[in-house]
Amino acid sequence: MAEAATQSNAVPYITAWSAEQYARYEVVAHPAGGIAYRDEVPHDRDADGILWARMTLGRGRGRPDFGRVHTGRQRRAMRALLCQVCGGPASRTGDGVLWLLKDDRADWPGWPEGMAATHPPVCLGCADTAARRCPHLRGGCVAVREREFGTHGVYGGRYRPAAPSPRAVTDVIAGVDDPRARWILATQLVRVLRDCSFVDLRLSRAA
Ligand SMILES: [Zn+2]
Prior knowledge:
binds zinc ion, four-stranded antiparallel sheet, mainly beta, disordered N terminus, globular
């Protein structure tokens, strides 16, 4: 039972360590529109043609920085629906995959239907740890199971045309099919939550 084997003091899988930093890069205009790296290689883009930020690998080296996520591990966890804490498979039942969300039920009727989630799901064994340790969940969170998870988007820095090279203007979320996505240097993979139901896990409250 991998879900029961999680250490309570483990550093979450997606947390970036101090040895893990964004690599130096130079963004240029892409001939077909949008942005590119001056020294771009095929590995820099995903199957949707999205350009991804380069981050060095050094998990476990230096100190964990709980306020930052590692781009590569966040993307892998979100794509494969892995637990953001232990990196094993997220909890999945007939009601769907398990997510912990900051409690924003007041935001709109039917929340979180249609919400763009940037934090990957969790397994049952790690749900309590995530509720206590994730900075964005402090102040209260809810557990949700989600049956449909087809829609992808990306979060990252949006660029606009400028001379001599495109300039970053703001951080945005856009669907991978959105024409704006070609202007984004992606740092996190996003999933739009659909067909959600609330579950009562009796989670600890964050201190
Ligand atoms: Zn886990």
